[in-house]
Specification:
The complex is a heterodimer of chains A (367) and B (110).
Chain A (H helix, E strand, L loop, with lengths): L7 H26 L15 H22 L6 H14 L3 H25 L3 H21 L4 H23 L7 H23 L1 H22 L2 H4 L4 H27 L6 H31 L10 H19 L3 H29 L10
Helix pairs in contact in A: 1-2, 1-3, 1-13, 2-3, 2-4, 2-6, 3-4, 4-5, 5-6, 5-7, 6-7, 6-11, 7-8, 8-10, 10-11, 11-12, 11-13, 12-13
Chain B lengths: L8 H8 L3 E2 L4 E2 L6 E7 L2 E6 L9 H12 L7 E6 L28
Parallel strand pairs in B: 4-5
Antiparallel strand pairs in B: 1-2, 3-4
Classes of the chains: A mainly alpha (367), B alpha+beta (110).
């Protein structure tokens, strides 16, 4: 079966939309913190920070990654709808944007269900449940629920996608069947705990937190990162990013056990950013060297520079959390600005290495 | 007229061993992803698979395999053909393969 390939410029174009979703999402985050409030014409609502990061950025990126893997034209509907939701949100058509997010999530759930149909394995099931979590979160958002009521589902989308991907990749570590079943059970129970959160938030989230710690410990034990940390360049970088992300997952779990899942305020801010910055962005840094070649056909030349934004990401997140705990808004703001800077520096490094440093699209085959 | 093409499989396999899966740091031959090498109407065909239908590296591997086949002088035409049967499993990996024993792929930026 030889498939007709989607032109690379279409993939790059959609990737640019994902980056646009990221940048506008970060900008909305800065507006939330109060920066630029004298300059802002309020073209972006500060409240769009979460929807842009989850849908405009991650929805477009993950949808694009799946579509490029499948090489089915219909699979591109999901990332296109997600990218469109960014645009409509920014030009002030909030309700249209919300509908596009729902349709995009529906498309992604369709793609993931199709993948499960092609290969009915538990890792595809977990990833499909991740897409369904996004759909759930987006439907609740459309129906006007508060963000704090639905944000667990938004978090579940990238988290379950990553958990499924790690289970799939770590087959090469040949974990015992029982361990694989245990990991699947932890994931299913974690989704069930998110449902429970709607009925009893403190108890539901404490159960979620125990399960998150168990998932993180499983990953520490069975993830190939434990071995690849001894490797070099991107491989080692990826392993360090993965293991640091799993560490944030454990911190998130411990914090959740202690504080539950508040609905507003600095502890709520701390918990969400442990997940979204500490865990999710560590995963993004870890996977960038794989995602970008899969879409652009170009390897990102490695440079030790990439440790700089990774260290900044963790250090400023720690500052932010300390600021949250100590009720020091100024420290929290410094941490937040530092996180934005770390992400921009990582993205800038990737773009520099790809477009300035790379002259040839293919790797040196004579090493 | 029937034309016979002789295939130097050893050479082709050698070329394909240069294609490294960046996620696993192992060449696609040792990973068990290359299923078949044959000639079809004067075209060199390599049937390969990916570890999963949702594998993000599939498109990259396709490009890399095509680049490897372009170096085979005997054939002007070549095709890297993705197949899903039989389904790949970890049992297809060569015994004793050292994951990430191979240096990660480098970009020639000279």
């Amino acid at each position: 079966m030889s498939s007709s390939r989607t032109p690379t410029y279409i993939l790059i174009g959609l990737l640019a939309f994902a980056a646009f979703g990221l940048l506008t999402g970060l900008y909305a985050g800065l507006l939330r913190l109060g920066i630029f409030h004298h300059l802002s014409t309020q073209s972006i609502s500060p409240l769009s920070h979460g929807p842009l990061m989850i849908n405009g950025f991650l929805g477009t990126l993950i949808g694009l990654e799946r579509a490029a893997a499948l090489e089915k034209k219909w699979a591109y509907v999901a990332p296109i709808l997600m990218a469109a939701s960014t645009i409509f949100g920014l030009i002030g058509h909030a309700e249209t944007a919300q509908w596009l997010m729902v349709m995009g999530a529906l498309g992604l759930a369709g793609v993931m269900t199709y993948l499960y149909f092609l290969q009915p394995k538990v890792y595809h099931l977990i990833m499909a449940l991740g897409a369904l979590s996004l759909l759930t979160g987006n439907l609740l958002y459309l129906w006007g629920w508060h963000i704090y009521e639905l944000v667990g589902w938004w978090a579940a989308f990238p988290m379950l996608t990553i958990f499924g991907e790690r289970l799939e990749l770590n087959r090469i570590m040949r974990p015992p069947k029982r361990a694989q079943h245990f990991f699947t059970a932890l994931n299913i129970l974690w989704i069930a705990s998110l449902v429970l959160v709607h009925f009893t938030r403190p108890l539901g989230w404490r159960i979620s937190s125990v399960l998150l710690i168990a998932i993180a410990l499983w990953l520490f034990k069975y993830d190939i990162a434990k071995r690849t940390i001894k490797s070099v360049e991107w491989t080692r970088y990826s392993a360090i990013s993965l293991l640091s992300g799993y560490s944030w997952l454990i911190i998130t779990g411990l914090f959740g056990l202690w504080q539950g899942f508040l609905t507003a305020g600095p502890f709520y801010d701390g918990l969400l950013h442990m997940i979204f910055v500490g865990f999710i962005f560590s995963m993004i840094f870890a996977h960038a060297s794989v995602i970008i070649p899969s879409l652009s056909g170009r390897l990102v030349p490695y440079h030790n520079y990439f440790y700089f934004p990774l260290i900044l990401l963790h250090a400023f997140l720690a500052l932010r959390i300390i600021g949250d705990f100590a009720m020091l808004p100024s420290l929290r703001k410094i941490g937040s600005y530092g996180n934005v800077l770390a992400i921009i520096l990582f993205l800038g490094g990737v773009v520099f290495q790809l477009f300035i440093k790379t002259k040839k699209p293919f790797p040196n085959r004579n090493h | 007229m029937l034309t016979f093409y002789s295939i130097d499989r050893g050479n082709i396999v050698q070329q394909l061993r240069e294609v490294i899966d960046p996620e696993l740091g192992v060449n696609i031959v040792d990973l068990g992803l290359v299923y078949n090498i044959f000639a079809e109407d004067g075209t060199l065909v390599v049937e390969y698979t990916a570890t999963t239908p949702g594998c993000p590296m599939r498109r990259y591997l396709q490009q890399q395999i095509e680049a490897a086949l372009a170096t085979v002088d005997t054939f002007e035409n070549y095709e890297a053909r993705l197949v899903w049967e039989p389904e790949w499993s970890v049992e297809m990996i060569e015994n004793g393969v050292d994951f990430f024993g191979h240096p990660p792929p480098q970009v020639n930026d000279s």
